[in-house]
Specification:
Helix content: 25-40%
Strand content: 5-15%
CATH class: Alpha Beta
Radius of gyration: 17 Å
Shape: globular
CATH topology: TIM Barrel
Bound molecules: 1,3-dihydroxyacetonephosphate
Largest sheet: 8 strands, parallel
CATH architecture: Alpha-Beta Barrel
Distance between the termini: 10 Å
Oligomer: single chain
CATH superfamily: Aldolase class I
Number of helices: 9
Structural class: alpha/beta
Number of domains: 1
Strand order of the largest sheet: 3-2-1-8-7-6-5-4
Length: about 240
């Protein structure tokens, strides 16, 4: 299977710079005949009807589990449909831990978007205090994040992102990623991404780990040239 590469813009880029980024990445994929699956999650304000090659999709970092209604500050599928968005990120640790989304909220969101056939990138990962308790506690914590989540769903990609590795420059050892991905793959026969301080200098070695089907990248994907170089690395993996 060809490796997947996904970029999470988080709260970065404007509407204008997002458009430039997506147009340029799209023509890069086209020109170089790159057929890996590439996903970009811009901010909600930068969503638009992007014309892209079929292997590039643009997704929402978040949306509520409604079509429309009275949910101040949220967007629903009426707003996503306007731009033909059919991909969503669910369960990111910044939403779990900083914004306080519970497993119940996440499950409701997952089931709603599943019922509409969205491609879901579903994130799991343990905080530092759990990692420090050892591998079995880490696995138990991560497996609990699948509570209520239908792993038989056809259109789901799982991303394992240890919270302590996100935006910190720290990554787990190759052995730790290998161990956790192996255990996760036993539970789910789905594409499994690694995320957390992936950068041009460590991408190739991460992609070489068994059961790593691709990466979900924050910080180092916000620079267009770095992202393109990481697409090239992914294509060669
Ligand atoms: P960083 O690549 O900045 O560590 O972020 C990873 C991430 O959270 C992607 O969703």
């Amino acid at each position: 299977m060809k490796k997947i590469i996904a970029s999470n813009f988080k709260t970065n880029h404007t509407r204008k710079s997002t458009k430039e980024f997506i147009v340029n990445v799209n023509s890069f994929l086209n020109k170089n005949n790159i057929d890996n699956e590439v996903i970009i999650f811009p901010t909600a304000t930068a969503l638009d009807e992007f014309v892209t090659v079929s292997n590039l999709s643009v997704g929402a970092q978040n949306a509520y589990y409604v079509k429309n209604g009275s949910f101040t500050g949220e967007i629903g599928t009426e707003q996503l449909d306007e731009f033909g968005i059919k991909t969503i990120l669910i369960g990111h640790s910044e939403r779990r831990h900083n914004i306080g989304e519970s497993q119940k909220d996440i499950t409701l969101k997952y089931n709603y978007y599943k019922s509409l056939g969205y491609k879901i990138v579903y994130c799991v990962g343990e905080p530092l205090e759990v990692k420090e308790q050892g591998i079995s506690q880490t696995l138990e914590y991560v497996f609990n994040q699948f509570d209520g989540i239908d792993l038989e769903y056809d259109n789901v990609i799982i991303a394992y992102e240890p919270v302590w590795a996100i935006g910190t420059g720290l990554t787990p050892s190759i052995e730790d990623i290998e161990t956790i991905h192996k255990k996760l793959k036993k539970k789910l026969q789905k594409p499994l991404l690694y995320g957390g301080s992936v950068k041009p200098t460590n991408l190739a070695e991460i992609l070489a780990i068994p059961n790593v089907d691709g990466t979900l990248i924050g910080t180092s994907s916000w620079n267009e040239e770095d992202f393109k170089s990481m697409i090239t690395t992914t294509n060669k993996a």
